[in-house]
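Handout, page 2. Input:
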Amino acid sequence: MRRNRQGGAIREAVEGEVRRHLMAHYERGRPLLLGFSGGPDSQALLYALLSLRTSFDIPLHVAHLDHGWREESATEAQQLEELLSSLPLVAHFRRLERAAMLGENQEEQGRLARLALFRELSERLGAQATLIAHHCDDRAETTLKRCLEGAPLTKLAGLRPVTELEGATLWRPLLPLRKEELLAYCSELGLKPIDDKTNLDPALYRGAQRTLLFPLIERALSRSIARSLSHLSQSSGELEEYLNEESAPYLSQVKRGSQGSWLNLEERLPHPFLLSHIVREFVRTEGVAISREATLIACRHLVDGKEGMISLHHRALHIDRRRLLMPRFSLKAPPPFSLQHGEHRFEGWIFTVSRGEPCKPRLGWEWLFDGGLSFNLPPGDYTLVPPQMGLFFDGREVGEHYAKHKVPCFLRRTSPLLIHNEEVVMELLSGAAWQSGRESDSKNIGKEDMISVRAEAVGL
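Output:
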């Protein structure tokens, strides 16, 4: 821990960290937005930015959100407005109605309200980023909280120097610095930060950490833990970057269609630790969260080569032959029906039958994930029937045929079979199409006589 910085040393420490961050990330001349509470952290960052404003050519904007939690907050906002009006920047103030912030989790509501404001202002101003005055102690608090919540090792990083969050680009140049250093910086400049007592309110989680949990742990260990937790956070971030690099060749093989995604891991199954990361990322890119327990179950099925299904927030993750599949539909086999001209709607399916309008054949379960199936038939009477025991195709029981062609188990009971003269002549899922010996049945038929069928999976 840095101790007893004297004279200009503390100024160089704070302004030096901000300078290094700007040199690494800032595009000269672009507007920057500072999230400003008026407390010691944001005041330290404000004045560090002002000291560098000219050399970096920074059009600086400041945003203050009065949550309305405290009676004195409106008065403090007025004081901040007077302060900022004398500085070379543009200030933006907003106040939330107290009624809008009532509820069980005020901290989370406040965080979302701030992010919404930052996103709105950044888009309007064309700002490169919003700067937040989080520091080493804040990072340590976030990491400890995630440890206690059982977060994956790759998610202990918490606060990062640069991140995208809720559509907002956030920069945190003060993460290497302790709270005490920012207080010393404010003292050296003669600043008078606002003292927001809710930051130490034990009724709020952050306040409980600062006033109860951290002091208790540090007394028990006889040492400060902020730096150690910050180092753990950094290692977690590096681990996630490493796993992202290692998983990229696998995730690049994900197939995405309009009705779902799938990933085939049959050729090479990665180490279980990397596999769990791949599963989480595959699900995350579908806009769905997956718990640790569900991830472990999915990995176990993949390693064992078993079939299974995991329900995830109105979506299903299917594991089949070391493949991950996430359809956006749920199907039920239609009842038997004759292929007559026109549109036929059933639960989960739409079949469109026409004559004289040949279509491009698209058969195989992959096409279901990419919008639908289509095929052409020679003239005749055809019936589509649901799959059932005792039906054979190409010399095998239909289930054995599907297994040979690695059709996902969850689809085998949902797709109909084509019957002609009391015989199964086509199935739709394997891509094998016609029964052997019938492939040429439609080749010598004129277009005007061809029967075309389009099947779309629309879900239940």
